[in-house]
Specification:
Blueprint (H helix, E strand, L loop, with lengths): L6 H18 L4 H23 L8 E9 L4 E7 L4 H20 L5 H20 L3 H10 L1 H11 L5 H31 L8 H5 L5 H18 L9 H7 L2 H26 L1 H6 L1 H21 L3 H20 L7 H31 L15 H12 L8 H16 L1 H26 L15 H19 L2 H19 L1
Antiparallel strand pairs: 1-2
């Protein structure tokens, strides 16, 4: 047993404990408590990246205790190749958000820091949970902090209606998943002892028709949370109004919990239904790529350009998961894309803050020429923008290559159509960069100035992480290979 076993509980609840300390202390404590609360989980995540035994595979750093014995619910946490790098991504982005908040104070900082910490606990709990009931608990808990972050710190007159729309959409999905989870445990028991342990449920034998309707409940919950077309109705209003540091986390991490749920729960527990619904899910993913890319190209609001591009990127991720090639290359590419998209989209949203400060607007048609006296800002923006284009040498290229490779083996026609999404991504991201940076002179009312040291302290480490991940994606691929193969083999065996 690893010496780090006990640390998973610390990983989950340390941010919340420090946030409670900051919330009950003087106002000046909040930024410092938020940073300390985010640093420790990040340190643990880095330790696990170096300590995790990829050759051994399987769950490591396990915490497995009884919680609600009468219902068969366990406090069961663990780390394997499916969640190792997603945990690291989560802790990094929450640390960046805490640093951003300390450099750019917000109204009611103690409550803001508390909600961010609660969100981090919920996301890490969902990633590490190995009990289905525990996963559902943390999955639903993610709604709570963002209800307040959008409703209280959001911008614009429509923030309240945007909050209601986001909560109603995602709550419907969460309730469907709760019903599916209970049905899975009860029907798997077949009159015996009820268990919610995911590994036990994966060895149960549910009938094909039962799997189909339970699959539908889980799939709707995950597709709404991502979101994918046509379940994205809440996204435009929420992205317009959400405070940008919170939006960077929401887009970079929370959407990945839903994609991860397909790999962790749906494929192993409901393999026959996953095979039956494969074509339908692939078509929805393909429509998301085309629709998201087309919308990103036509939008002028910088937030929505990134919002719709995220729909397209998540479409690629779902394609990889449901490629179901025997070697699991598509699923490995999907997992790599989850990490890469989170690394890329977070600094892009933070850069939008800097662009809006210099132009007074988030409309890219009213910017222009911002690189005139800001070459460092332009260089940072260019590196992050290029990281989304799947250029050879980038982690995005490796991820999309693996996804398409897996898809070519199983669904050739869909793979050919999906390939067009790669070209479309280059168009909308380069359009955004050129519109904001490379007019010959700054647009009227636009102030072209260099990035500040405080902002660089937050953004530069993310850019360095993007470069490092592009130079060496093999660490994530090596760690994820056994786990992704095992998940896919449950379906294709």
């Amino acid at each position: 047993m690893s010496n780090l076993t006990i640390h998973l509980t610390v990983l989950l609840f340390w941010p919340l404990a420090l946030a409670l300390l900051g919330a009950t202390g003087p106002r000046s404590w909040a930024p410092g408590a938020a940073i300390v609360g985010a640093v420790v989980p990040f340190a643990y995540a880095v330790m696990m990246l170096f300590d995790y035994d990829s050759a051994a595979g399987g769950l490591q750093y396990v915490t497995n205790d009884e919680w609600i014995k009468a219902l068969g619910i366990r406090y069961y946490l663990g780390v394997d190749g499916l969640n190792l790098w997603l945990i690291a991504l989560t802790t990094l982005l929450f640390l960046v958000a805490a640093m951003w908040m300390s450099f750019r104070p917000v109204e009611r900082p103690r409550l803001f820091a508390f909600h961010l910490a609660l969100a981090e606990t919920a996301v890490l709990g969902a990633f590490t949970a190995q009990d289905l009931a525990l996963f559902v608990l943390f999955f639903d808990l993610m709604l709570v902090p963002f209800y307040f972050l959008v409703g209280q710190w959001g911008s614009g007159p429509d923030r309240v209606s945007a909050t209601y729309k986001m909560i109603i959409y995602t709550l419907v999905g969460s309730l469907l998943m709760l019903a599916g989870a209970v049905a899975t445990a009860v029907l798997s028991a077949d009159g015996g002892t009820i268990t919610f342990t995911i590994s036990d449920l994966a060895h149960a034998h549910l009938g094909a028709s039962t799997q189909r309707w339970i699959f539908t409940a889980f799939a709707l919950a995950f597709l709404i949370k991502m979101p994918l077309f046509p379940f994205h109705g809440w996204m435009p209003d929420a992205y317009r109004t959400m405070p940008l540091p919170a939006l960077a986390i929401f887009s970079g991490v929370l959407s990945k919990v839903a994609a991860y749920g397909f790999l962790r729960i749906v494929l192993p527990v409901l393999p026959e239904a996953a095979k039956d619904f494969q074509s339908l899910i692939l078509i929805l993913a393909l429509l998301s790529i085309i629709y998201g890319s087309a919308q990103a190209f036509t939008q002028t609001n910088a937030r929505l350009v990134l919002g719709y591009s995220s729909i397209a990127q998540l479409g690629f991720i779902v394609l990889g998961i449901f490629a179901m090639d025997p070697e699991g290359r598509g699923a490995q590419g999907a997992l790599l894309q989850m990490v890469n998209h989170g690394l890329v989209v977070a600094p892009l949203f933070l850069i939008i803050v800097l662009l809006a400060e210099r132009s007074g607007t988030e409309d890219i048609t009213k910017m222009g020429g911002l690189a005139f006296r800001a070459p460092v800002l332009a260089a940072l923006f260019l590196i992050v923008a290029l990281a989304t284009l799947a250029m050879p040498g980038s982690a995005n290229f490796v991820g999309e290559f693996l996804i398409l490779l897996g898809l070519f083996q199983t669904k050739l026609a869909i793979a050919i159509i999906a390939f067009t999404g790669v070209a479309m991504a280059s168009v909308y991201m380069l359009r955004m960069f050129i519109r904001t940076m490379h007019n010959r002179q700054p647009a009227t009312g636009v102030e072209s100035r260099e990035v500040s040291i405080a902002d660089a302290v937050v953004i530069v480490p993310l850019v360095l992480a993007i470069i490092a991940f592009a130079l060496y994606p093999q660490g994530a691929l090596t760690a994820s290979e056994p786990a992704t193969k095992a998940a896919i083999q449950q379906v294709v065996k």
